[in-house]
Amino acid sequence: MRYLAIGAGVLAVLFTGDAVFYAVTTPPSQPMAAQGAGMPAGRNLTPPVKGLYKGRDVLFIHTEASDRQVAEMLTMMMGPKVLFVPSLAQVPADLLADVYGFTNGVRGGGPFGFQVDVFSSVPGEPQYTPLRSVILATWKDGVTPRLLRSVEEIRAAADRGDLSLQRPGVVVNMPMLVWPGGQR
After folding, report:
1. Predicted confidence (pLDDT) per residue in 154-172, tens digit
2. Measuring CA to CA, which residue among 120, 147, 140, 146 is closest to residue 131?
């Protein structure tokens, strides 16, 4: 009996060691964030969105918005739910960066179906924050719209009277994923 108990103990240690070795050396079948959360492997919960910063492409995501209609519009645009978080509207202005969205003009991948959003800052800059104060850019009647690729170009067009800028008080959480010179 004693040898049987010792043999069973040795087998248990060997099987446990083999299981630990397998767990450590074998890649998981699902991404770690999805394991145990009931999420299927490979499901992209929040697809990246293209934008511009100083004429260069960036990729970002929308996660929350301070306005219910904006949250619903971004949800319809992107697929995954953008959460309505009204308290974002209470964030002090000095803790926000800007994002310019176009309500008309050149057709494209922006939230209104026109050109993509233009950002005022990216990670690595002192003024970067993922919390964005939305500024709506609208081309004026009689002006031929064109693609504006930077905040400087937008402000120059507004100064010339080509477009109007409106800050509706909406804040959207828009963390950057890829930006000039960096990525997460």
Report:
1. 999 999 999 999 999 999 9
2. 120
